[in-house]
């Protein structure tokens, strides 16, 4: 058996569970079913009615906020279901999604998420994280109600961090709320090329100071790539000491960061190699899909693998990077690990063949059975644009 990524992706043959005979796969590659641990199912596919006017981060933020008025349960159900169909057909078995949670949206989105989680049980395991800006945080009032919803629906407490004068106090309050409710934490962090944005450092220091012992995940961390190397690496030492997890979102960061009137110079990807060198768990994920934050994508983790390899130079380095698209995010989120019954099989004999094509002819096995990998047609969502 030819092995890639420390045993994650294999070629040549597959041994069946229960003592069955090995099946000769004629040299194809088989991957464990994917785990996509940072998505925004609630934003997905609003591009036809809410396109980013200039491709910038602020263009995305203001456009999404304006579109919130359309986010009824019916609208969310249609778009989120469409995204889940895509992810399932591509071979994803578990998803963590962020849910915009500015009132009154939480009382719409969280019950709807719970409905979809039950409907998709056995096909895609779902987990949700609330999402607000750190300047909207308080321990009382609206966010306390949101935190109660997160607890009721078994979610993760989340927040976007950026430099505000009292961020330390807000983080202390956030961790108090998470501790009281027994919740893990997941932050959007330093999604900017501004080297002075160091909220990642403050989060790590606060985790160490408080002894917060539930899982803490941070996503993006773009500003690390523009900081003085000594300072950036010292911050990563703190992240490692705090026992935090990182999820890198290279496709969305490449789309938004360093966008201006000319050619971009910087990729926006965080320091994933330096993180792994310090033992920090690193995962990669899809992030946004056909919305103002990222105009493209299809919740296809093979595409994420292909693009992350090129953007972050995962080739010609360590041999276990492919774990970051399945096993590592499963551990971070607390999803069960994939079994030999949940595989994605590609007609490729080695990695350059795998990463050179989209592989629309892949075979997806769930529970040992081949599933229908027909993707939904975009026309399924046309009724949403006709009524808004």
Question: How many DSSP helices?
Answer: 13
Structural class: alpha/beta
Strand order of the largest sheet: 1-2-3-12-13-14
The separation of the N and C termini measures 54 Å
Low-confidence stretches: 1-7, 12-21
Q: How big a fraction of the residues is strand?
A: 15-25%
- The portion of residues assigned to helices is 25-40%
Radius of gyration: 20 Å
Q: Can you tell me the overall shape?
A: globular
CATH class of the largest domain: Alpha Beta
Assign the CATH superfamily of the largest domain. Metal-dependent hydrolases
Number of structural units classed as domains = 2
Mean pLDDT: 93
H/E element string? EEEEHHEHEHEHEHEHEHHEHHEHEEH
Largest sheet: 6 strands, antiparallel
Present the secondary structure layout.
Layout: E1 2-4, E2 9-15, E3 22-32, E4 34-39, H1 57-67, H2 73-90, E5 92-100, H3 106-120, E6 125-131, H4 142-152, E7 157-161, H5 167-181, E8 185-189, H6 199-210, E9 216-220, H7 229-242, E10 245-248, H8 250-256, H9 272-277, E11 282-284, H10 301-311, H11 327-333, E12 343-346, H12 351-354, E13 363-366, E14 369-370, H13 382-386
Parallel strand pairs: 4-5, 5-6, 7-8, 8-9, 9-10, 10-11
Antiparallel strand pairs: 1-2, 2-3, 3-12, 12-13, 13-14
Helix pairs in contact: 2-3, 5-6, 6-7
């Amino acid at each position: 058996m030819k092995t890639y990524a420390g045993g994650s992706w294999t070629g040549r043959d597959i041994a069946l569970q229960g003592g069955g005979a090995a099946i000769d796969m004629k040299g194809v590659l088989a991957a464990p079913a994917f785990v996509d641990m940072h998505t925004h199912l609630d934003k997905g596919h609003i591009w036809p009615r809410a396109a980013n006017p200039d491709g910038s981060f602020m263009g995305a933020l203001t456009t999404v906020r304006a579109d919130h008025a359309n986010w009824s349960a019916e609208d969310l159900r249609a778009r989120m279901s469409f995204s889940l169909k895509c992810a399932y057909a591509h071979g994803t078995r578990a998803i963590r999604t962020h849910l915009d949670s500015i009132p009154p949206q939480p009382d719409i989105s969280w019950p709807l998420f719970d409905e979809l989680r039950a409907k998709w049980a056995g096909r895609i395991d779902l987990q949700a994280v609330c999402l607000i800006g750190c300047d909207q945080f308080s321990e009382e009032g609206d966010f306390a109600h949101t935190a109660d919803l997160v607890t009721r629906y078994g979610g993760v407490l989340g927040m976007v961090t950026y430099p505000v004068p009292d961020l330390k106090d807000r983080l202390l309050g956030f961790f108090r709320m998470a501790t009281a409710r027994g919740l893990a934490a997941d932050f959007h962090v330093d999604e900017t090329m501004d080297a002075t944005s160091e909220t990642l450092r403050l989060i790590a220091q606060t985790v160490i100071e408080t002894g917060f012992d539930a899982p803490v995940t941070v996503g993006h961390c773009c500003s690390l790539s523009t900081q003085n190397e000594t300072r950036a690496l010292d911050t990563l030492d703190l992240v490692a000491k705090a026992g935090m997890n990182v999820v890198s979102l290279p496709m969305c960061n490449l789309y938004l960061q360093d966008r201006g009137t000319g050619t971009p110079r910087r990729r926006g990807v965080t320091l994933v190699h330096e993180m792994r060198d310090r033992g920090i768990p690193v995962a990669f994920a899809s992030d946004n899909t056909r919305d103002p934050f990222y105009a493209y994508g299809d919740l296809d983790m093979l595409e994420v693998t292909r693009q992350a390899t090129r953007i972050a130079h995962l080739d010609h380095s360590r041999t276990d990077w492919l774990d970051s698209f399945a096993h590592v995010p499963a551990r971070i989120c607390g999803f069960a690990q994939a079994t030999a019954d949940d595989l994605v099989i590609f007609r490729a004999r080695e990695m350059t063949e795998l990463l050179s094509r989209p592989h629309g002819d892949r075979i997806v096995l769930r529970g040992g059975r081949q599933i229908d990998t027909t993707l939904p047609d975009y026309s399924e969502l046309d009724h949403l644009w006709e009524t808004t």
